[in-house]
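Colleagues,

For the teaching module next term, I've prepared a clean inverse folding example: a structure given as tokens, and then the sequence designed for it. I'd like students to try predicting residues themselves before seeing the answer, so please don't circulate the second half yet.
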């Protein structure tokens, strides 16, 4: 058994099944009860996937100390230890050792307005993606003479329905922004930037405001897109690089189109973009650089 106040809980003795069950709302109470008996100095959680957030909020609301760290920090810590193996038990021990050695700051969950805004922003992004796919399908249907008229009309109705759903959620997001003075102030500041308006600001703001204060910087949290080579150094001259998938995909998606608009209409962004292109950077590299500086 683990003594009260210990810094690490053995994953094997705690039970893999119990840990997995605790990721779901029905299992939060059982894990909270167990953690209160163990009285840990800190519960280290990795900010990955969709399951950690609700559990982290439940643990904090129960009065337990929780620290949320970005996955990149865990990966770098494993690299320093020359640890390549990955199992649930190994990862749990790695997080515990990270917490003991690095002593990360305790996490403070965002308030209900920010949590709701993030949920709305992500749903708007999903529906917008579905609407784009539907429009592409409609374009392909109209290009084929054999497509029945009924299918074209059905796809048009689906696009209109998605548009109404997106508009309803945008109105709900704006209502949330108006209810919070701080979010309302930040929204006005975001909209002052070229390329960012009502469509982008809520989505961008929703993601940033749920991060811990010490993780809101790009070099620590990797919440902005980077640039990597999808090849070895010998192949780099023949294969084009791609945008890094590390970091927050929702922020990366929210910044892409505003950066393109800023390059056209913001003199500073345009000059920055053209300077990079003149230095033989590819247009996509220059686009990513503008996204990082937006």
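(Answer key — instructors only)
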């Amino acid at each position: 058994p683990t003594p009260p106040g210990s810094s690490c809980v053995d994953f094997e003795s705690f039970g893999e099944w119990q840990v997995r069950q605790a990721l779901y709302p029905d299992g939060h109470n059982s894990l909270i009860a167990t953690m209160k008996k163990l009285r840990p100095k800190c519960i280290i959680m990795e900010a990955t996937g969709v399951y950690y957030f609700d559990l982290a909020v439940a643990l904090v609301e129960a009065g337990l100390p929780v620290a949320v760290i970005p996955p990149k920090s865990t990966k770098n810590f494993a690299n320093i230890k020359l640890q390549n193996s990955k199992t649930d038990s190994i990862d749990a021990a790695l997080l515990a050792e990270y917490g003991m050695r690095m002593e990360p700051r305790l996490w403070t969950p965002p308030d209900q307005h920010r949590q709701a805004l993030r949920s709305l922003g992500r749903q708007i992004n999903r529906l917008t993606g579905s609407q784009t796919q539907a429009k592409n399908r409609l374009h392909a249907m109209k290009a084929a003479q054999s497509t029945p008229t009924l299918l074209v009309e059905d796809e048009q109705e689906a696009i209109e329905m998605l548009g109404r759903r997106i508009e309803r959620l945008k109105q709900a997001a704006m209502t949330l922004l108006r209810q919070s003075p701080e979010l309302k102030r930040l929204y006005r500041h975001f909209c002052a930037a070229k390329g960012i308006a009502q469509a982008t600001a809520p989505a961008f703001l929703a993601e940033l405001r749920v991060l811990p204060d010490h993780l809101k910087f790009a070099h620590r949290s990797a919440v902005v897109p980077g640039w990597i080579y999808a090849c070895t150094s010998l192949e780099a001259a023949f294969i084009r690089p791609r945008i890094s998938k590390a970091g927050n995909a929702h922020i990366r998606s929210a910044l892409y189109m505003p950066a393109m608009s800023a390059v056209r209409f913001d003199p500073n962004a345009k000059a920055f973009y053209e300077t990079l292109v003149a230095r033989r950077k590819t247009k996509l590299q220059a686009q990513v650089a503008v996204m990082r500086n937006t």
